Each structure stands twice: as C-alpha cells, then as structure tokens.
Amino acid sequence: MDSLPVPASVVRLPDGTYAYADQASLPVQQAPQQIVQHIHQAPPDRTVQRIALGSGVGAGAVAAGVYFGPLLVGVLTAIAANLAMLAFLAAVSAWGVVTVVKSIGGTEGKAASKSLSRSRRRS
Questions:
Q1: Tens of pLDDT along 5-59?
Q2: Which residues make Cβ contacts (< 8 Å) with residue 117, sequence separation at least 6?
Q3: Per-residue CA distances from 14 to 11, 17, 18, 99 (Å)
Q4: pLDDT tens-digit profile of 84-123?
Q5: Is 101 exposed, middle or buried, given 0-12, 13-18 or 19+ CB atoms closer than 10 A?
Q6: CB 3.0 to 4.6 Å from 11: which of 21, 48, 87, 109, for a disulfide?
C-alpha cells in the first residue's frame, strides 16, 4: 500500500491510520482563469446628456442631443472641408493669374504683378 499514490481526499492521521478528509477543509486548487477581453469602439461621451438630465431637461431633448450631436459634427466638418478646398482653389487661381500676367503682359504685366504681390504681403 505504501507504493500506491494516496488520493487527495485521503489523509494520514498521526496514529498512522488513513481517513477520508472533509472536502471543505482541503485547499482548493483552481486553474488560472483565462480572461477574454473584446475591444470595441469606445462608447460616446454622454457627459452632456447626464448634465442635461440632471438639470431637468426632458428625455426627448436628451435623445435629440444624442442623435443630432454627431450629425452636427459631421456637417460642420464637411463645411470646413469645403471652405478649405475653396481657399485652396482661390490661391491656385490667383497664382495662375499672376503667372499669366507676368508672362504675357510685358513690362506693364510685371509691374502689375509686383504691385499685386506687394499688396498680398501687407494684408
């Protein structure tokens, strides 16, 4: 009997006899728990909505803020992109006009382009 392994639920008492141990008193061996974390897009910031609800604004207004807030950001971004494109086109066309006037206009064209470039530097 000494050569066989002793089951974990059997303990040897001080007098040499074997007895079954109480399962509640045995140390519990747990396998390490594997944590699976799914990473998603961050939820929208609802601070404004929480403040609005706390100040007594109705749920309809909060829902409108949740719905129209991102739409407003998208519209303003599109407007800013359009304005940037228009500014770029205006700069390119002004450069084109100055270049054409310099090359075609002769001495009067060079003088006009110099005065135009000076006025642009001042403003």
A1: 666 677 788 898 887 777 666 566 677 777 776 676 666 666 766 666 666 667 7
A2: 98
A3: 10, 7, 9, 106
A4: 999 999 999 999 988 887 788 777 777 777 777 777 766 5
A5: middle
A6: 21
- Asked if 6 and 18 count as a contact pair (C-beta separation under 8 A), the reply is yes
* pLDDT of amino acid 5: 65
CA distance readout (Å), 105 to 95, 96, 100: 15, 13, 8
β-bridge partners, 20: 10
* Nearest residue to 49 (alpha-carbon basis) of 37, 64, 33, 28: 64
Place of tokens 């006025």: 119
The residue with tokens 């604004």 is: 57
